[in-house]
Each structure stands twice: as C-alpha cells, then as structure tokens.
Amino acid sequence: MTAPLTPPPPPNERSSYQGGPVPPPVGAHAVGTPPGAPYGTHGDHGEQDGPGMLTEVRQAAVAVVAVALSGVLLGVLWWKLAPSVPLVGEVVGDRWLVYLKESEGEQSVGVDGTFTLLALAFGALSAVVVFLLRRRGGVPLVVALGAGGLLGSLLAWRVGIWLGPAQDVVAHAKEVGKGVTFSAPLKLGAKGALLAWPIAALVVHLGLTGLFGPRDLEPDPWPAPYGKTSA
User: Among 159, 158, 184, 160, which Cα is nearest to 172's?
Assistant: First the structure.
C-alpha cells in the first residue's frame, strides 16, 4: 500500500527559495517607510529636511550681528529726526539753574515717539529681509531676530545719545550764556520703546511665515494597497 501523493503547488506561485520576495508580516513595514508605501521603499521623510542644526546656528549668528549693527543707522536717524527740547540757563545768586523753556511743550514725548516709530519700521524691515533670505525659518533664526532687534535698539539708543547735545546741561548753559536757548541732550524717557524693534520683527516674521512660508505635505488619508504604488 502506498501513501497518497501531495499535489504539487500551482505554477503561478513562487517559492521563497526561487528568489521571490517574502511578504512582510501583517501591519509591519520597514523603518522610514510610511504606511501604504511598498515594502522596502523609503518616503521623502527619510531624507534630511533642510540644513542641519549647525548650519542653522551659523545663520542665526550672522543674523544677530547684521540686525544689531543696523542699530547704528537707527541711532543716526533718531538723532536727526527727533525734535529738540529747548532749555534755558539762568543764574540765581551764585548758582546756575537750567529749566525747560516751554514747560508745557511736548518735545520730550516726540523724542520717545520718534524712536518708537523708527524702531517699529526697522523691526518690520529686518523681518522681511531675514524671511526673504531664509524662507524656511527655524527656531534659531527666530531667536536671533529677536535678540538682534533688542541689541540693535540698545546700540541705537547709545549712538543717538552720543551724537546728540552734551549731557552736562549746566556746562552747556554756561557756554552759551545766561538766557540763551539751547537743546537738551537726547533722552529716552520710555524705556519700553527698546522692545519695539524685537516685537515688530517677531510679529512680522511670524505673519510672513504663516502666509508665504513652505507648507508640509499632508499624508495621504487613503494609503495604497500592499504591493501597489500610485501613479
């Protein structure tokens, strides 16, 4: 008596011993392969996305220096465009007294306002330039934009004071003479104006990135069946 013979496999099936592909377990896929992609392939997310962190830090360092140095121009414009505050020196006894020529004048407010408006304009301009040069953005670049704006404001403040009238108002009054009007030194009464540049830069850069920045590709909600690729 002979045992029953096992029927041979169909000719269209290929054994793994003949070099045919071995299907992966159900639910498993290769590392870096998105669900729905053919087994053994890698999607675009496996590639490096943009420059490395070291490159971004270098670009951020350059941005900080460039934005901060532009504060020199802001200081010069503040010195040129800010209204002058008139002072008058008088001699009382053997002492010199300096007081405002116009006690109700608004020149002091104009000095702060001029600095604030210029700082807002510089913040918006620096954000546009940085966005055009580095459209992809990144956390280091955003931090550099804010830090550079703050450093630029501080530099502009000191440059304007240095270029403006003398700080020693009594000596200045003695130099011009009693009763002669002279300009007060530049003074930033509202120190909060120093934050106008970095705030404007961050807000404008955020808006440009949201409107015109690169978009991430949304994943396909209907992945292709196993073994099939999209056209």
Answer: 184
Q: How far apart are CA 128 and CA 63, in angstroms?
A: 12
Distance from C-alpha of 188 to C-alpha of 186, rounded to nearest angstrom: 7
Are the CB atoms for 197 and 152 separated by under 8 Å? yes
At position 104, the amino acid (one-letter code) is E
Burial of 159 (0-12, 13-18, 19+ CB in 10 A): buried
Alpha helices in 1-134 (DSSP H): 53-69, 71-81, 107-133
**Tokens representing residue 51 in the block:** 């420059």
Here the tokens at position 54 are 């070291």
Q: Per-residue pLDDT tens for 83-117?
A: 988 888 888 878 888 878 877 667 888 999 999 99
Q: Which residue has the tokens 């109700």?
A: 104
Torsion of CA 201, 206, 209, 211, to 10 degrees: -110
Cβ proximity of 132 and 63 under 8 Å: no
- 75-98 in b/e form (b: 16+ CB < 10 A) is bebbbeebeebebbbeeeeeeeee
Q: Which amino acid is at 168?
A: D
CA 220 to CA 1: how far, in whole Å? 61
Q: What is the pLDDT of residues 167-196, one digit of tens each?
A: 888 888 888 888 788 888 998 988 999 999
Residue found by looking up tokens 């992609």 in the block: 37
**Closest to 141 (Cα-Cα) out of 32, 63, 44, 38:** 63
CA 78 to chain centre: 23
- Six-digit token string for 226: 């196993």
For the chain, the helix, strand and coil percentages under 3-state DSSP, each to the nearest 5: 50, 5, 45
Dig out the tokens for 215 from the structure. Answer: 């978009």
